[in-house]
Specification:
Elements (H helix, E strand, L loop, with lengths): L9 H7 L6 H11 L7 E5 L5 H6 L8 E6 L2 H12 L4 E6 L11 E7 L8 H10 L1 E11 L2 H5 L2 E3 L4 H4 L2 H15 L5 H11 L3 E7 L4 E3 L6 H12 L9 H10 L4 H17 L6 E3 L4 E7 L2
Parallel strand pairs: 1-2, 1-4, 2-3, 4-5
Antiparallel strand pairs: 5-10, 6-9, 7-10, 8-9
Helix pairs in contact: 1-10, 11-12
Bound molecules: S-adenosylmethionine.
Amino acid sequence: MGEYFWNDQLEYLMSTRDLYYNDDYLEFLVKNVWKIDKPVDLVDYGCGYGYLGLKLLPLLPKESSYTGIDMGEQLIRKAEEIFQNTSFQSKFNRADIHSIDIDKKYDIALCHAFLLHVNNPRNVLKKMLNSVKKNGKIVCFEPHWISSMSSYYIGNEDTSKIIPLGILQKLFEHDAKCNGKDGNIGIKLPIYLSELGVIDIQCRVSDKVNFLDSNRKDDRNLNLYESLKMDGFAEAPVEEEEFITRLVKRGATRSEAQYQYDSELYLSNIFSIHSSLTYAPSMKITFGTVKG
Ligand SMILES: C[S@@+](CC[C@H](N)C(=O)[O-])C[C@H]1O[C@@H](n2cnc3c(N)ncnc32)[C@H](O)[C@@H]1O
């Protein structure tokens, strides 16, 4: 078996997380929405290098603790290295969510951009819920791809020419039905959690709208441009026939696949550091209380 995919994705993870939330919005969630005023034990499933812990722990009462679980050995090693240089109580465990037994009960089970990568998200959610104390919380930050794809605007371009939503909607739905992995899971989680007995469910949207400003020539603009590129935005498509064949296998008609190819090629040619672009990732943040 080849190298585990996510072990190679540290650079991608580290350079794209800033696209999603303003720090003041996370602080608003912790203090005004979740109203966490006592130390809590957190568990983060699919924690990667510990992004969520690094964002939330500074906002939480001292003595709070963070446990990160991830299948990627190199990601876990990086997380341990990063957290060693902080004063936060932390623990990391390299494990597959499907095979791990979680005996400990936590105050809050978290995940960020994780459930879209498992092919049986309802079972994984059950496991997450089993690791929460009675009246504890579950909080899932997950994407809603079609909403995110509809939230790009490049100056002076018709968005329908660069991001045709109809075909993407169809492809995402087809893929989710075929392999269970669902990039639109964010918008479905309120329903899934309710079916699993979670109460007081709310769902919010990430607040950040990124703005690449062609009139601004500084590091902030350059970093945003690089984050967008790392995120795969405006990536040149693979060779035309291969691209079309792949899309047809995923349920597109030949003419839809051709249109998608032309759009991706056009976008990859026009997008540069000199573009003006707005982009709202539109992550969905779903949370609720676990009855236990
Ligand atoms: C998109 S990354 C998100 C990482 C981190 N939550 C973040 O936002 O930076 C998805 C993570 O889920 C982890 N993952 C995927 N399937 C897993 C499984 N079955 N058990 C544990 N971790 C898993 C991957 O190793 C990867 O680190």
